[in-house]
C-alpha cells in the first residue's frame, strides 16, 4: 500500500472500530453505568442515527474547508469524543460522546474515499478506494474482538482509550504527510451548490439506491449469522468467534479483488459480484445444514459482500466526475446504514413470523439479485450511451457546385 494511503486507511479503521466495538462491550457498559441492556443498546442506535441524519449536514457545512485541514479537524473531534467516552462518568455523557463521534463518521469516511480516488492514477481509483476501505475490513475482523479482549482484561473504557490512541496516530500522520494529490477543495468547485448539484445526477442517485439495496440483501441474513452457524450449521457456540474471523479474512481478500475488478470493468464487475452473492445465499438456504458447506459459503459470502464495496464507491466518484462528490459519498454511507437497518428489521420480521432461517437467507438472496438487476439495467444504459456516442452524426453531402451556362452551350 502506498504510504499516502496508509493514514487514510488508519482513519477508516479507527472510525469503523468506534462504530462496531460498542456491540461487543454492551453488557459491561450496562453493568458499570447501572443501566439496562436495552438502554445500553441505544448507544448503537444513536450512533447509526447520527451517521444517517447529522453526517450529511456536517459534510455540507464543511464543504468549503480544504480537505487536509478538514481531515485534521474531524480526526481531532473524533479523538476527543473517544477520550470523553473513555472518561464518561454517566450514561448521558457516554451518549453525548457517541453522538459527537457519529457526526464525524460520514464526512471522515467520505473525505478519505475522495482523497484516495484523487491520489490514484486514472483508471485505478477503485483499487485505491479498496486499499483505504481495508480499514473497515480490519475494524470488522479485528476491532470488535480486540475491544472485547481489552474489556475482559482492563475494562470497557480501555476499548475507547485504544481507539483514541489510534486516532491520534492517524491525525499525526495526516499532519506530517498531508495528501499531496491535486485535490480541489470543495470551495473551488462551488461549495454547497456544487455538492447539491451532484445529487441531481441520475448515475449518483442510482448508485446510492444500489448501495442501500445491496446492503439490505447482505444484512437480512448476516444479522443472524450467529444462529445460522449454531442452529442451522450445528457449530458449537465457542467456535463462532473463530469462524467469523475466517469469514472476515474472506472479506479482506474480496475487498482487494473487488477494487481490481472495478478498475477493469466497473459495472460488469458489480453485476457479476451481486450475482455471485445471490447465488451463494441461495445455496446457503438449500444446503446450510451441512457444516463444511456452510462454512465455505460464508467465506464466499464475506468475499462477495466486500468485493461490491469499492465498485459502489467508484460508481459515485465516476458519476460525480470533476464535480464535488463528498456529499454524495457521505449520503452513500448513510444509505449503507439504512440498508443495514432495513435488512436487520426485515430478517427479524421473517423470523417473527416463524418462517425460519432458510426463508431469511432466501429473502437475502432475492434482495441481492434485485440489486444485481438494478446494476444490470445501469450497465445496459451505459452501453447504449456508449454506442450512441460512437455513432458519427450524419453529415450533409457537400453541395455540387453549379456551373453557369455558357454562351456556346446555349446555341445549336
From TrEMBL:
Signal peptide positions (record): none
TM annotation in the entry: 42-63, 70-93, 99-120, 132-150, 156-176, 206-225, 240-258, 265-286, 292-312, 324-347, 359-377
Segments forming domain Major facilitator superfamily (MFS) profile: 4-380
Disordered: region residues: 385-412
Residue ranges with Low complexity bias: 403-412
CDD domains: MFS_NepI_like
Keywords, in A-Z order: Cell membrane, Membrane, Transmembrane, Transmembrane helix
A GO CC term assigned to this protein in UniProt: plasma membrane
GO molecular function terms listed in the Swiss-Prot or TrEMBL record: transmembrane transporter activity
Domain of life: Bacteria
UniProt membrane topology term: Multi-pass membrane protein
Localization (cell): Cell membrane
Stated name of the protein: MFS transporter
Source organism of this protein record: Streptomyces venezuelae
Organismal lineage: Bacteria, Bacillati, Actinomycetota, Actinomycetes, Kitasatosporales
